[in-house]
Amino acid sequence: MTFPALRRFAPVLVLAGLGFGLAACSDQKQQGGGAPQAAPVTVAKPQVKQITDYDEYVGRFTAIDLVQVTARVSGYLDKINFTDGQLVKKGDQLFGIDPRPYQVALDQAKANLARSQADLDFAISDLQRAQTLIEDRVSTAISKQTFDQRQQTERSARAQVAANQAAVHAAELDLEFTTLTSPVNGRMGDRRVSIGNLVTGGQGGSTNTLLATIVSTDPIYFEFTFDEASYIRYQQLEKISRTSGSIASIPVSLGLISETGFPHKGEMNFVDNVISENTGTIRGRAVFANPDGSFTPGMFGRIRVPASLPHDALLVPDVAIGTEQTRKFVYVMASGSEPQVPKIKYVTLGRQEDGLRVITSGLEKDDLVVVNGLVRIRPGAKVVGQPEPAKPAAAPAAAAPAGEGTTAKPAN
Question: Quick one: where's region Disordered (predicted)?
C-alpha cells in the first residue's frame, strides 16, 4: 500500500482502535463491579378499618312552606309593614288594606241584627199572649188560625236573627282580612304591589292580587333522586338493620358545592311512592336544621346516604396505586429482606377515607404492598422491601416551671 493510500485510511483505523478500547474497558467494569444492586422500596400491610359505604347524589334545597300572600278582600293598599327579604314570624302584620268600607258594612250588619232581634222579641211576646188565651179556652178571644200565624211570625223572626248574625260574622271577617299577617316563620320576598294601588280579593282565588311570597328557612328540605337498584338496596339494608322500619328515617350528611366533605347532618323524612316510568328513578327528601340561614331554597348540594352496614375494609395510600390503561393495580411482595421481583395485583378502588383509598376487591389483609418507591420498579428487576418506619409518637408537653402557667388552688 502506498503512503497516500495509508494516509486516507488512518482515521478509520484510529476510530476502530478507540472502539475496541472502550469495549474492553466496559467488560472490565462489568467483571470488576458485578451485578447492579437491587433498589430499596417501602412495603406495608394495608390498614384494616371499620367503615360504612356511602352513595353520593346531587340535589337542591326546597322550602318546607312556600306561601303566596294574596288579598282576600278588595280595596286600596295603605300599609306595608316589612322590608324586602326580611325574616318574619308567624302572626307578624305584613299588609294593610283600607278598612273603612268594611267597618261601615259591619256597622250596618249589626244594625240589621238589632232590628231583627227587636222583631223577634215582639213576636215572642205576641205568641205568649196567644198561648195564654188558647189555654184559657176563650174561643171568642183568638182563633186557631191567628195562633198559628203568630207561631209562624215568631219562627220567621228567629230565622231573620240567625241570618243577620251570619251577616255580622261575615262583615267581621272581611274587616279582619284587611290586615294580612304572616302564616309561617320565614323570609319575605320582594313586594309586588305598592301603597295606593287597588288590590283584588275574593274567595275564588284566581283573580286575587299577589302581594308577596314567604318561604320558610328553618328547617329546610333537600330533594334528590336515585335509581331503582339503589332503592332496592336501601330497602334490604333497612330490613337487615331493623333500626327504624323505613327508608325515610335513615341518617344522612350533606355538603355544599363550595365545601369539602359532608359536615351537615340530617335525616331522610320522605321517599316517594312511585318510581318514574320515564327515568327509572324515585324521589327522596331529607330534612336539615338551618338556624343560621346557610341553606337557601333552590341551592344545590351534595348528599351522602349510607349504602351498607359498618364493615371491615382494607385501605392503602393513593401513592401505592398504579394505573394500567383502565385498570388499577398495586405491587405486592413476599416477606423477607432478600431481593425479589414484585408481583402485580389488580384491585378495585373505593372512596377515600382519612386520606387513604379503600380497596374493595383484589387485595388481602396480609399482603405486603409497596407504598413508596414505585418509580424504582422496572419489569423483571428485583427490589428490596423495607418496612415502613413507625411514626414517632407525639412528645409529651413539658411541665411548666413552678409559678408559670398554673394557678394555685386554695386548700379546703
Answer: 384-412
What are 145's three cell numbers?
188560625
Q: Tell whether domain 220-306 is in CATH 2.40.30.170.
A: yes
Question: What superfamily in CATH does domain 99-176 come from?
Answer: Helix hairpin bin (1.10.287.470)
% of the chain residues with pLDDT over 90: 34
User: Helix H segments across 81-180?
Assistant: 100-135, 144-176
Burial 24-40 (b: 16+ CB within 10 A, else e): eeeeeeeeeeeeeebee
Q: Domains of the chain: which residue ranges?
A: 40-50+311-387, 99-176, 220-306
Check residue 385 and report its DSSP letter.
Answer: E
Burial of 271-298, coded b for 16+ CB within 10 Å and e otherwise, reads beeeeeeeeebbbbbbbbebeeebbebe
Kindly write down the DSSP assignment for every residue of 388-407, as one continuous string.
Answer: PPPPPPPPPPPPPPTTSS--
Helix (H, G, I), strand (E, B) or coil at 344: strand
Using CA atoms, how far apart are residues 272 and 274, in angstroms rounded to an integer?
A: 6
In whole angstroms, what is the distance from residue 215 CA to residue 65 CA?
6
112 near 128, Cβ under 8 Å?
A: no
- Identical fold for domains 99-176 and 220-306, yes or no, is no
Please give the Cα distance from 297 to 186 (Å, whole number).
11
> How high does pLDDT run on average in the chain?
81
What residues contact residue 404 under an 8 Å CB cut-off, 6+ apart? none
d(Cα 148, Cα 151) in Å, to the nearest integer? Answer: 5
What cell numbers appear for 310 in the block?
Answer: 359498618
Domain 40-50+311-387 class in CATH: mainly beta
Element (H, E) at 75: strand 75-80
DSSP per position, 196-226: T-EE---SS-TTPPEEEEEE--SSEEEEEEE
pLDDT tens digits for range 368-410: 898 888 888 888 888 888 887 766 554 454 444 443 433 334 4
Here the cell at position 164 is 243577620
